[in-house]
Amino acid sequence: MTGSPSSLDVDALLTDPATRILVCCGSGGVGKTTTAAALGLRAAERGRRVVVLTIDPARRLAQSMGLQELDNTPRPVTGVATAAGGRLDAMMLDMKRTFDEVIEGHSTPEKAASILENPFYQALSSSFAGTQEYMAMEKLGQLRARADRDSDGWDLIVVDTPPSRSALDFLDAPQRLGSFLDGRFIRVLTAPARAGGRAYLKVVSAAMNTAASVVTKVLGAQVLKDVQTFVAATDTMFGGFRERADATYKLLQAPGTAFVVVAAPEPDALREASYFVERLADERMPLAGLVLNRVHSCRAEGLSAERALAAAEDLEDDEAHPLVAGLLRLHADQMRRGAREAELAARFSHAHPDVPVARIAARPRDVHDLDGLREVGESLAS
Questions:
Q1: Vertex 55, ends 49 and 58: CA angle to 5°?
Q2: CA distance 348 to 5
Q3: CA 293 to chain centre
Q4: Dihedral of alpha carbons 177, 182, 184, 187, sign
Q5: Are 65 and 77 in contact (CB under 8 A)?
Q6: pTM to 2 decimal places
Q7: CATH, domain 10-170+245-300+341-381, list 3.40.50.300, 3.30.565.10, 3.40.930.10, 3.40.50.11270
Q8: pLDDT digits (tens, 9 = 90+) for 216-240
């Protein structure tokens, strides 16, 4: 293996009508949100009807797209050069609102009102571990269903996955939350409510009664009652949670989906990217390639770091050239940084020789507008 990767043809990926979902994933702080926005903008200006779904609570995406705010409703982005017939919408996941929509869409108005007012549901929908990732999957399923219903709707959904410590959270959360809601622990907690009154003593075993008693001591009687009330109201919906999680998981495995792993040329980020590449392969999910963000390079590559430092030392005693000496040292630092990044990228490609790579050059400032996103897109496609 040479460790020389093939180049990821970004424009071919974006303009292929068979690509319906593009998922940008990777560890936090590597530029997933900006990459997703740049890909969405480039696709729209090449004729695709695109919606970008971000889970990043920061408002960088809204600002860069010229929007006052982003919320749970897709909003059109103005200033996009859509002469080819494309368009660009953007939205930011509202975790609780999406959960509310699931409840409202799968129960009667009276039952929905009861669930939405339940204290346990309010805590579950706002702060339960994995809820954000699960709701990202729910929203993706909703957007795809809406796109399939509307012949003039979106033909490409770009997903900016949640920032998380582990790249596995996005893939694991739907099954984890579905298992929780449909699991034995919930059934034990809610056995009294499900059996009802004195019949509970006849139906529920002594072991379950003891377990519920222990939980009551740990959580408190009111919390247990809230859980029982919540599950009693949503009992018929449990299967739906699991079914939708399974359906969206299969959607991510379908040929129309492409995953793009985003990483920075840093050891931790590339280690996480490598782990995600392997997990995607294990789950048989379609990986388009790796986007290596914030790559440093130097136009004067003919001048090595060693020669630049030697020249700077020769000029140290020359008071007439302090600026030149400083520039030579800066050049040496850039060359060494670029060499370190190239070595890290080569290690990744040696471990994953079949993964195409696209690079985004490091920028002197953050992206704040559509022109900045265009520049990122051009760097990706160059």
A1: 110
A2: 9
A3: 16
A4: positive
A5: yes
A6: 0.80
A7: 3.40.50.300
A8: 554 456 666 777 777 777 666 766 7
